């Protein structure tokens, strides 16, 4: 329980990030868009799932050409789960908080991990991770100490009351991915674990 509450503060690593082509600053990517350009509203109440999906789909199409960055400005951005794409930076400004929906209807079911063959808490499929990605390369999650908030209490309450039919999602899960940087961002209040990189290589 303590671990869940504790903010996972990832240290700032001052590397020559742009020089390495890695893109910790949105300026390192050729295509830079704010999430508001896809219709998102940062009022903490509007559900922005479709806006995040549109943003990642659009930037995913552009990212092969010099990379792409999605900038999340100051505000509280409520959304259901979304996936990342390659050659991509998710950049959270100071005071930006991405809030996970607490409505389980917003969390689709996904396949279990191949090496588990079932969900971790329950058999069968599992709830989506909040932020996911498979088979990605060159992904950065960074910014000026924004927050990714799983608002996980609802999940923990149901989990302890044995009211969940499926395994909870993680705050961030990356599968079969490489060249990932996570810096200068705070992960809090996950429905289960915070960060779960699996089948990934350096
Ligand atoms: C994210 O990708 C996984 C496959 O890697 C898929 O099962 C899932 O539906 C996707 N989630 C969203 C919200 O698009
Ligand atoms: C990702 O890579 C794994 C391992 O190479 C492969 O089994 C899987 O089909 C790939 N998934 C996608 C969505 O390309
Ligand atoms: C990390 O965030 C701080 C502000 O919280 C900012 O001053 C600094 O430039 C950021 N560093 C990187 C590498 O983004
Ligand atoms: C980053 O944000 C967290 C939580 O909001 C806070 O505890 C921490 O002090 C901040 N770090 C910096 C360097 O601003």
From TrEMBL:
This is Polygalacturonase. Keywords: Glycosidase, Hydrolase, Signal. Belongs to the glycosyl hydrolase 28 family. One of its GO terms (biological process) is carbohydrate metabolic process. It comes from Triticum turgidum subsp. durum (Durum wheat). Gene3D superfamilies: Single-stranded right-handed beta-helix, Pectin lyase-like. InterPro entries: GH28_Enzymes (IPR051801), Glyco_hydro_28 (IPR000743), Pectin_lyas_fold (IPR012334), Pectin_lyase_fold/virulence (IPR011050). Residues 1-24 form the signal peptide. It holds the Pfam family Glyco_hydro_28. The keyword DNA repair does not apply.
């Amino acid at each position: 329980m303590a671990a869940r509450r504790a903010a996972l503060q990832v240290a700032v690593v001052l590397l020559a990030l742009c020089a390495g082509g890695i893109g910790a600053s949105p300026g390192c990517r050729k295509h830079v868009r704010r999430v508001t350009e896809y219709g998102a509203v940062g009022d903490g109440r509007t559900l922005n799932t479709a806006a995040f999906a549109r943003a990642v789909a659009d930037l995913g199409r552009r990212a092969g050409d010099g990379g792409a960055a999605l900038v999340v400005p100051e505000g509280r951005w409520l959304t259901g789960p979304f996936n990342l794409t390659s050659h991509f930076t998710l950049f959270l400004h100071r005071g930006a908080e991405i809030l996970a929906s607490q409505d389980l209807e917003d969390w689709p079911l996904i396949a279990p991990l191949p090496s588990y063959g079932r969900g971790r808490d329950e058999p069968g499929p599992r709830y989506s991770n909040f932020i996911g990605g498979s088979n990605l390369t060159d992904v950065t999650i960074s910014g000026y100490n924004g927050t990714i908030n799983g608002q996980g209490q609802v999940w923990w309450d149901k989990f302890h009351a044995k009211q969940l039919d499926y395994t909870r999602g993680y705050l961030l899960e990356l599968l079969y991915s490489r060249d990932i940087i996570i810096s200068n961002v705070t992960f809090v209040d996950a429905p289960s674990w915070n960060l779960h990189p699996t089948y990934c290589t350096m």
